[in-house]
């Protein structure tokens, strides 16, 4: 006998427990919610897990002779509260429902798994975030490369691509899937290339074959080939896409009529940004608590579809002049035509999540309220369509032409569904009067019963002469006539006594019984008829899925462009000039995020930046910490990126020569958990830049090489800058912020390298940061001043100044400037020896500690504590 996961071989299981274990074996890795009457119950290890995650009580249930099993449950109507908690905790959840009415059977109720909800496959509103897509992804490791596919079942978006691992890694970071599928046994390959931060699930190898995947896709789309989708040549991408469809079948998501196309992610259309760039520019999220991302600043969208699309736009800026200018033209039109802007704004407020509602129609999960919302949205689209068609703008005209009013289904919903229906169909009162004659008649019987009962009461009271006679209802024997004891001698013989109370008797009559059957039967029939009529309406709606999906896409686009116009007006952004050349000329540029976080009354210091490939290809920026070098680098990238996604920019003017790739090497974060030092991370990222750079790229280096010793760092930085300047395939526009003032020497030898510094003023040995970019290199870094401002102990600041003076004088004696780099590194050992030939720094620190003591006012206890501190300094040596 097979041993079950609960109990031992010799236990005779209850029939229900056996049913549970048989179903659990289908998805052993999922938490099973087992419907039992009015509750969803979990058993055994599932119950222990559920009680911890959901905070519900862990109890026991009988499991065969003298045995019990752990159990935790919750009322079935609370599913929407508890299911999201399990999914967010990274659990797959199998929902097991009763497949027949318990009243209709005397045996064990038939049960089955109706849905498997996973972090990546869900259409439950409480699990989904309306501002972001909920993608499930599949990765296929092919012989020649890697394929990837993404599907959001809640919107019907289905995308695929293939390429080298770093490209797939970039897509996984950009789309941020909630769950990733890959072939069983390929975990090492997956984690080695993409890390272990994702929720993953392994599928059998037969799913990841070309024939299985192709067959699955062709069957779903009902086509002979995939050429019409432009993906026929993506062999690995097709396998990944097929695996996702197979997974939907496994998780019982078979109603997927809203997945109408498979699109190729067109890499050549978008600016390439790797995950380091997206992270360091803080496009979607911040690296610091309390910070703001670029998306948070730009997102003024009204509809959920718009919010999801804008997120996509931010990580996929365009690199062709025409589509960028098309977007900018619409933003400008919104900017100038206030009446048009206000009309669109007003109507967008009414639309809601059109994309997800129509997807629910496809999967048969749409509620009556959502159908009414669909009707409201279709009404709201009418004035939008009209206004777009009349606008003096080709892109808006195109949006207007594509919007479909779906008049026939709109009027059908209007005619058939009540204006304020309940959330669930089984609550009744969903279908309007006048739609179905039988329904109206049954409602007449069920709901005008009170009047009829009053008539019976009046008639019987007059006939019997009992003035206080009343008709009532109870759940045990239905309708009854109640007569007080003083009148019971007047009761007709044909009445049947049913209940005796202290002061009265209750009777039933043949007429009341017949009427009761009529009323109660009518209520059941009403519910069944309303459900049938509602399902017919939803079926009619399915024909309009493609048209409404196009509406959702166009509304999302309009919403994004309106948001960009609103943010431009609010923050005084200007329209950039987009040109297909190599000049980047930003006048009085500002950082879009930092300027929003300035203290009240404080003004962001704007700067000019000019880069091209003929005269000023590389700018080396020196200046102290806190002077604003990093902000300047980031703002240049963000202004370029904003311009290429179709937004106005925070500058007085901006000439943007199109960029094809943006690379940043900003602020290394140690990857020690993977055994990589700061320097290793820096070098990996720098190598990635140099291997992929083109003449149209924009490169930002911030403090490159600081993870190693000074002269190693200088040597590497010098060599990298030299390569970008000299290599004919590199020659990219580059901003290089550095502490290494030695790099200023490069301007003398390389004609397209120019030195700039972020200016500071030194007054009375204090520094004031002016945050202005000026021509020429910086003299020194003011690092000790910054340490002093941070509250470093005075003795350390003084000691650092002494050491700096000594090093500078030694440096002048040795004179490294102008020397070949090979000689510079040879002098390094000598430099370090000189450092230790100075006074012993520990002894100097002790001397300073003693000199700073106020001996006259020192208590004995403080003297002992100070002595202990000095002893600790000596031991530290």
Features:
MutS, DNA mismatch repair protein, Chain A, domain 3, MutS, DNA mismatch repair protein, domain I, 27 strands, 877 residues, six-stranded mixed β-sheet, 30 helices, Nucleotidyltransferase, domain 5, single chain
Describe this structure in words.
With about 900 residues, the protein is an alpha/beta fold. The protein folds into six domains: about 100 residues, DNA repair protein MutS, domain I (MutS, DNA mismatch repair protein, domain I, 3-Layer(aba) Sandwich); about 130 residues, MutS, connector domain (Nucleotidyltransferase, domain 5), CATH 3.30.420.110; about 140 residues, MutS, DNA mismatch repair protein, Chain A, domain 3, CATH 1.10.1420; about 80 residues, MutS, DNA mismatch repair protein, Chain A, domain 3; about 220 residues, 3-Layer(aba) Sandwich (Rossmann fold); about 40 residues. About 45% of the residues lie in helices and about 15% in strands. It has 30 helices and 27 strands. Helix 14 runs antiparallel to helix 16. The radius of gyration is 37 Å and the shape is elongated. The two termini are about 70 Å apart. About 5% of the residues have low confidence.
Q: Count the domains.
A: 6
Query: Proportion of β residues?
Result: 15-25%
Backbone CA Rg? 37 Å
In the predicted model, the low-confidence regions spanning at least 5 consecutive residues are 6-10, 668-675, 815-838
- The number of helical runs is 30
Number of strands: 27
Helix/sheet category: alpha/beta
Largest sheet: 7 strands, mixed
End-to-end distance: 72 Å
Q: What is the percent of helical residues?
A: 40-55%
The best one-word shape is elongated
Q: Which CATH-level-2 architecture of the largest domain?
A: 3-Layer(aba) Sandwich
Strands ordered across the widest β-sheet: 13-23-24-25-21-26-27
Overall pLDDT score? 86
**CATH class division of the largest domain:** Alpha Beta
């Amino acid at each position: 006998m097979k041993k079950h996961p609960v109990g031992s071989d010799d236990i005779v299981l209850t029939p229900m427990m056996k049913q549970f274990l048989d179903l659990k074996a289908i998805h052993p890795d999922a938490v099973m919610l087992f419907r039992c009457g009015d509750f969803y119950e979990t058993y055994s290890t599932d119950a222990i897990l559920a009680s911890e995650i959901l905070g519900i009580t862990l109890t026991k249930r009988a499991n065969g002779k003298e045995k019990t099993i752990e159990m935790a449950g919750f009322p079935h109507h609370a599913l929407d509260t508890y299911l999201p908690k399990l999914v967010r905790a990274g659990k797959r959840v199998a929902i097991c429902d009763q497949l027949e009415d318990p009243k209709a059977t005397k045996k064990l109720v038939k049960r089955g798994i109706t849905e498997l909800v996973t972090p990546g496959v869900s259409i439950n509103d409480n699990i989904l975030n309306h501002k972001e897509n909920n993608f499930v992804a599949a990765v296929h490791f092919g012989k020649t490369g890697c394929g990837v596919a993404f599907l959001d079942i809640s919107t019907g978006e289905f995308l695929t691509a293939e390429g080298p691992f770093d490209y797939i890694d970039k897509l996984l970071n950009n789309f941020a899937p909630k769950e990733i599928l890959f072939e069983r046994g390929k975990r090492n390959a997956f984690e080695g290339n993409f890390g272990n931060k994702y929720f993953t699930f392994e599928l059998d190898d037969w799913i990841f074959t070309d024939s299985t995947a192709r067959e699955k896709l062709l069957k779903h789309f009902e086509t002979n080939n995939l050429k019409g989708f432009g993906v026929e040549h993506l062999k690995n991408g097709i396998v990944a896409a097929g695996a996702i469809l197979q997974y939907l079948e496994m998780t019982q998501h078979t109603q997927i009529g809203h997945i109408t196309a498979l699109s190729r992610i067109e890499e050549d259309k978008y600016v390439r940004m790797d995950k380091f760039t997206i992270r360091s520019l803080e496009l979607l999220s911040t690296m610091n608590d309390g910070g703001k991302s670029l998306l948070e600043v730009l997102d003024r969208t009204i509809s959920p579809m718009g919010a999801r699309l804008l997120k996509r736009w931010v990580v996929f800026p365009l690199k062709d002049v025409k589509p960028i200018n098309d977007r900018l033209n619409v933003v400008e039109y919104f900017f100038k035509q206030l009446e048009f802007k206000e009309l669109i704004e007003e109507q967008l407020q009414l639309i809601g999540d059109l994309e997800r509602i129509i997807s629910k129609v496809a999967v048969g999960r749409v509620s009556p309220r959502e159908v009414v919302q669909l009707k409201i949205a279709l009404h709201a689209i009418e004035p939008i369509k009209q206004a777009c068609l009349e606008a003096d703008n080709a892109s808006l005209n195109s949006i207007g032409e594509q919007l479909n009013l779906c008049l026939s289904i709109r009027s059908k919903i209007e005619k058939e569904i009540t204006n304020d229906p309940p959330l669930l169909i089984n609550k009744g009162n969903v279908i309007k009067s006048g739609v179905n004659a039988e329904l109206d008649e049954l409602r007449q019987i069920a709901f005008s019963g009170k009047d009829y009962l009053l008539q019976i009461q009046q008639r019987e009271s007059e006939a019997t002469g009992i003035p206080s006679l009343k008709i009532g209802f109870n759940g045990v024997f239905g309708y009854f006539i109640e007569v007080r004891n003083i009148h019971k001698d007047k009761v007709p013989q044909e009445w049947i006594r049913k209940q005796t109370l202290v002061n009265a008797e209750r009777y039933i009559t043949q007429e009341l019984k017949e009427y009761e059957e009529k009323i109660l039967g009518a209520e059941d029939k009403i519910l069944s008829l309303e459900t049938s009529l509602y399902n017919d309406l939803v079926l009619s709606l399915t024909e309009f899925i493609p048209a409404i999906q196009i509406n959702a896409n166009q509304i999302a686009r309009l919403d994004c462009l309106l948001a960009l116009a609103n943010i431009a007006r609010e923050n005084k952004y200007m329209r950039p000039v987009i040109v297909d050349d190599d000049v980047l000329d930003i006048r009085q540029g500002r950082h879009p995020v930092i300027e929003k976080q300035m203290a009240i009354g404080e003004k962001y210091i704007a700067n000019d930046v000019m880069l091209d490939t003929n005269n000023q290809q590389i700018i080396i920026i020196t200046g102290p910490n806190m002077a604003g070098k990093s902000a300047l680098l980031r703002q240049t990238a963000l202004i370029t990126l904003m311009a290429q996604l179709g937004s106005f920019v925070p500058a007085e003017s901006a000439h943007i020569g199109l960029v094809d790739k943006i690379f940043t090497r900003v602020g290394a974060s140690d990857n020690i958990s993977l055994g990589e030092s700061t320097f290793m991370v820096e070098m990996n990222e720098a190598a990635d830049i140099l291997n992929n750079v083109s003449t149209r790229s924009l490169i930002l280096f911030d403090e490159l090489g600081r993870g190693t010793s000074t002269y190693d760092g200088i040597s590497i930085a010098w060599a990298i800058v030299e390569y970008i300047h000299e290599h004919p395939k590199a020659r990219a526009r580059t901003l290089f912020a550095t502490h290494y003032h030695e790099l200023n020497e490069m301007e003398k030898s390389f004609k397209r390298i120019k030195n700039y510094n972020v200016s500071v003023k030194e007054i009375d040995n204090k520094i004031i940061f002016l945050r202005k970019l000026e021509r020429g290199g910086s003299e020194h870094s003011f690092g000790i001043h910054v340490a002093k401002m941070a509250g470093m102990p005075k003795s350390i600041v003084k000691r650092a100044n002494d050491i700096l003076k000594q090093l500078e004088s030694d440096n002048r004696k040795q004179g490294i400037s102008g020397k070949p780099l090979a000689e510079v590194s040879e002098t390094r050992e000598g430099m370090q020896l000189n450092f230790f030939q100075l006074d012993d720094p520990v002894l100097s620190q002790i001397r300073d500690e003693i000199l700073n003591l106020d001996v006259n006012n020192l208590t004995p206890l403080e003297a002992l504590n100070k002595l202990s501190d000095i002893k600790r300094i000596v031991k530290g040596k």
